[in-house]
Amino acid sequence: MKEILETRTVRVGENVLIGSGHPIVVQTMCNTHTSDIEATVAQCKLLAAAGSQLIRITVPAMADVKHLEEIRSRLRADGVNTPLVADIHFSSEIAMAVVPVVEKIRINPGNFHPDHEKARALFGQFLGLCKQYDRAIRIGLNHGSLGKYIVEKYGNTPEAMALAAMEWVEMCIEAGFYNVVVSLKASNTVVMVNAYRNLARMMKERGVVFPLHVGVTEAGNGDSGRIKSCVAISTLLEEGIGNTIRVSLTEPPQNELPVAQYLAHRYSSAPSVSLGEREETILKAACDYGAPLLNHEVDDIPLEDEYLKDEILQACRRKFYKPEYIACPGCGRTLYNLEETFNRVKAATGEFKDVVIAVMGCIVNGPGEMADADYGYVGEGAGKVTLYRKKEPVLRHIPENEAVDRLVELIKTDQAK
Ligand code: SF4
Question: Ligand 1: distance of its center to the CA of 309 in Å?
Answer without folding.
Answer: 30
